[in-house]
Amino acid sequence: MKIRIKDVNRVFLLATAPFLGAAIWLLLSGMTIMPGDAAYPPLDENKLPETGHQADAALQKLEQANALAIQTAESIKKDAELYSKTNAEMKAIVNNTAVQKERPLHIYDRRITIKLGSPSESVQTDNLRAQLYYIKAQHFVGYALKVKLKTDKAMSMVLGEDEFGRSETTLAAVKRYKAFAGVNAGGYADGNGKRYPLSTTVVDSEYVGGFQPSVKDLFFVGLNEDLKLIGGKYSRKDQLDKQKPKFGASFVPILMKDGRKQAIPAKWKTSPLRAPRTVIANYKDDQLLFLVTDGYNEGGRSGATLEEIQILLQRFGVKDAYNLDGGGSSTLVFNGRVVNKPSDGQMRRLATNFLFFK
Fold first, then answer.
1. At what angle do helices 306-316 and 50-116 cross, to 10 degrees?
2. Which residue numbers delimit the Phosphodiester glycosidase domain (predicted)?
3. For the chain, where are the alpha helices, taking DSSP H only?
4. Mean pLDDT for the stretch of residues 164-188
């Protein structure tokens, strides 16, 4: 019997037709055939593989670590907030302490400023605070310069043209050094066509011409390395060395010590009686006060007496005060201009000048 491939295919198609029809129906209807429970029996946790227990333990440790990390983060956040709060409180305490510490100084400054009146001009910088006042007394007019030094760059004393034996006006020194203010300093002595500083003179912490013991009414006055006024009579160099002078000059006489008027030598009471004057003084808080008074000449008929200057200084409440070179030497420069009226009719060339810098 001859079997044809075509007949075999027909038989196979007829045999499988019911199954193919069922499969197509199931596919179109969306029905899903799931295996029974017997095919996949439930797992016994006690019979889990060892790797399953390790995975659970690792997961538990991970969860614990995560919880600890969250707790630590919250703790750090609270500590940071507490630190910020504490830091702010400490800053407030420090600032308040600083304010309270400065308060007595402000009160003291207000008291001494009231006695001077209202400043006509002021300069306030990181280096200093300088206030200029106009003074009108019964027999003379004058000017007061109150200075609070903040740094060691605020003030210096210079030789005339920076050379021992040379001289220059206060205004010339101010311009040459580009300072904003200047006051004449110590006395001088002329010789051989030169003008030398009188007695002990210190510039840039160096003795110019050597140390000279104080004789008669001469004194030394200047500032030390702490920007405090020092002055008096020194018979030995080591006495002055102990005070570490930064700069200073010499003249006569001493006017005030510890707020008390000093006896004025008879010679200086009448020679001259009245004259233009320049004085350097200090307050208890180490502020400086410079007084410069006007006079028509050195004949003794105009200007201030030293006793009148003492009364004025005591009224202003200064601690120590020293008379500097006066007469035609008295010069006060502020903001680049000469404030007073030099009695020579022009500025005198001087051996030393105090300068102030913004």
1. 140
2. 178-357
3. 5-29, 50-116, 170-177, 237-241, 266-270, 306-316
4. 98
